[in-house]
Amino acid sequence: MxxxxxxxxxxxxxTSTTKLIVSxxxxxxxxxxxxxxxxxxxxxxxxxxxxxxxTPMLNDVEIDVQRLTVLLEQEYKNAEIFLDQVEAGAVIIxxxxxxxxxxxxxxxxxxxxxxxxxxxxxxxxxxxxxAAKGSGAIQHSAETNAVIANIDVGxxxxxxxxxxxxxxxxxxxxxxxxRLIRLNSDGFVTYVSPYLTEFFKxxxxxxxxxxxxxxxxxxxxxxxLAEETVNYVRALIxxxxxxxxxxxxxxxxxxxxxISGGVGAMMEKQKPKTVREVAVHGDIGPLLAYQFQSIxxxxxxxxxxxxxxxxxxxxxxxxxxxxxIKSKKLPLKNIPIxxxxxxxxxxxxxxxxxxxxxxxxxxASTIFSAEDPPVAIALSxxxxxxxxxxxxLAKVISAEFGACFKGAKCxxxxxxxxxxxxxxxxxxxxxxxxxxxxxxxxxxxHGDYIDLGLPVAGEAISVSVKTLAFSS
Length: 472
Fold this sequence. Notes:
Blueprint (H helix, E strand, L loop, with lengths): L1 E12 L3 E14 L7 E12 L3 E2 L10 H15 L6 E8 L9 H10 L6 E4 L1 H12 L1 H8 L3 E6 L4 E7 L2 E8 L6 E3 L5 E4 L4 H6 L12 H19 L22 E5 H5 L9 H4 L6 H10 L3 E2 L6 H9 L1 E3 L5 E3 L5 E10 L8 H18 L8 E5 L6 H18 L5 E6 L4 H11 L4 E5 L9 E9 L2 E7 L6
Parallel strand pairs: 1-5, 5-6, 7-12, 12-13, 16-17, 17-18, 18-19
Antiparallel strand pairs: 1-2, 2-3, 2-4, 7-8, 8-9, 10-11, 14-21, 15-19, 16-20, 20-21
């Protein structure tokens, strides 16, 4: 059995705090006479966890990239690792920090200066997924077959992921966090997030900057924030003024709700009894944590570092080992994924598939820049595939890709099932001038970009599927 340890890092730049972890991932190519070859990450170990830093800011709207770079360099020294040793991981920018005007530039800069295959990621949905991985919610759902909700409550947002059978089935985000209301030790309010305006209006609340807030008023606000969050997660209400983006709440109700994030970490502490105790961090975090605790939700096994553990240990996957790679371009970063259903109908219909492939490729050619490869074609709704169907698939894909991306020299295709080698060979016969990368066993449900690394065990390669979405 071929095995290899690789070094992965996770850097989480959040609304309130920034932290780094270093981990080791053990990748093994497992096969025997009864099974197809399969490549998996079979062990993950955190080898270093940094201190938790206050996120460095130049002002209210700009992140301090110089101080972040110094922080990263110092933590690499503390962890005793070098850039050329880092083969996987993610720099993720989370919560309100992703809304800062230089967020996108900074997260890409730090990713490029963090190692050979460290990806730049952002987006509330991805943050919720990573937190659910790092907190243990996804694993718990796999072990219990129950629907588990993880609410990752930080400084600016609560990122929610519903998990079932070891997978995330729904994500959404609310404007709920410790630093949406800030105050000094005397109770004078120094900041009120504009995202709370509609919520205050609906609940007949008034809180203004410069006002001296009473403990009772702050307690009432935190109670209402916690209750609306949990009620929406439980599908007891169908809408909320706190939603970050439009969302239709499905009727699936979780059996267990876990709280991670900085606010989740404070749930084990005693209830603050005075405004001074509430404002120990300059915000409402401790009181918000108590209100979550009072409505009988659980503290996650991992809280403050849930997202960074998810980013550093859980965002990397490994492709199937029956892949087809005829390209010298690896590693590749930030390839947009376009999903094309193969057979949503009862029977295979090559004409309908061609119509879907043409529409998807034409739309993608107008949206994405002329990088090479321009997109990764992800094939979903894949039934049993006969030899004839495989040849028809290859013919349609190569024809529509070639028509829409005339300058492309490389074609990337992702499959959910174990047909990558056969499909890759069929594609290579159709378009001999194209470099072909065809991968299987890739879960692309929640991501819209993919990064492809170098081979790590046999032919298998490391893969990160992610969302890149920076809010303005």
